[in-house]
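Hey, I was hoping to borrow your eyes for a little while. A protein chain has come my way and I'm curious about its shape. Take your time with it, there's no hurry, and the full record follows here:
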Amino acid sequence: MNQNSQPNRQDFNQYMVPVFAPAQFIPVRGEGSRLWDQQGKEYIDFAGGIAVNALGHAHPVAVKALVEQGQKLWHIGNGYTNEPVLTLAKQLVESTFADKVFFCNSGAEANEAALKLARKVGLLSGSARKNKIIAFKNAFHGRTLFTVSAGGQPKYSQDFAPLPEGIQHLPFNDLDAARAAIDADTCAVIVEPIQGEGGVITADPEFLKGLRELCDQHGAVLIFDEVQTGVGRTGALYAYMNTEVTPDILTTAKALGGGFPIGAMITTDKYANMYAVGDHGTTYGGNPLASAVANAVFGFINTPEVLNGVRTRAQIFAEGLKRLNERFGLFEEVRGQGLLIGCVLKAEYAGKAKDIVTLAGEEGLLALVAGPNVVRFTPSLIIPEADIEAGLQRFERALARFVGA
């Protein structure tokens, strides 16, 4: 590629390690819930960077925080603390069950920190055998070797054996299986309140309550992976707040920085204090630049106006998708919470979710899959209602082409 020429999609194939298969168009500019590609074509964004762009693109609140902090202090390493990270930690603690926060750069890193802490909890229990981790089938917890092993989707882990041991996968929402598996050797249970990548499947309230009771009974740590469900996505600040269950550890990332990479593990003093200086770490985690942006984004979202607005927008999506399904009859159900929405294809269209998403892109709509059978929407939490309606019209055109194909 000539350094002076415009990069193109073919450059991806030439220069990038082939672990992604991106769309053929390249977005170059975004504003709110709209994007434009290199040719100037406009798209409405129902993908939200996979539940990351909680305030859409180039939101003034996030941009202002980025520019102001960028002119002051970006990075100093973890031999020092900084003002933005302390402010952000205080916001998280005061808004949740937690007493302490560990900052990192991604959801996978947050889950890595949580799982390592759980193993330390087991070690400090006095039982050398207390190291078993219970996870669930179809879960997704990240791509590091530890988190991909905890995830319950073999397609992501099977090529990288031998995998970390001591992780047992159970059927999601099966409390009887959990009762049979969780015992004195269990150090942790890790669960998503809503399985995002696994198909937008909500955990039954009784299932989560049962896990809480089993963890208390056997001295195990209950970890909620809220990487996708956190920071307003479900209409609550965190999805655990929609249940009557409080975890011991919660992981958060994606929307936390509104597009700037940042993750966090939050927990109570009881467990936080089991980590000692040097037990875990990160070079970039909690740097001033990421923390300043996350402060602005988190503070903006953590208001009744925005959180109530998520529920209002979810209702508009629900009604619009119901109308589309009455016309096309493609979806078995539309499920999820708030603006984490999964359109589940009927059996006769199994495996075709990606085809629909590709057609949506051609019609000027960004959407996602959640496995081969589910079309997923995770738009901005403040997407204008007019953009929802316009996006659903584009989705309708894509579905019409799909049915006609």
Q: What stands out?
A: The chain has two domains: 9-59+304-404, 73-301. Residues 304-328 form the longest helix (25 residues). The mean pLDDT is 96. The CA atoms of residues 141 and 147 lie 5 Å apart.
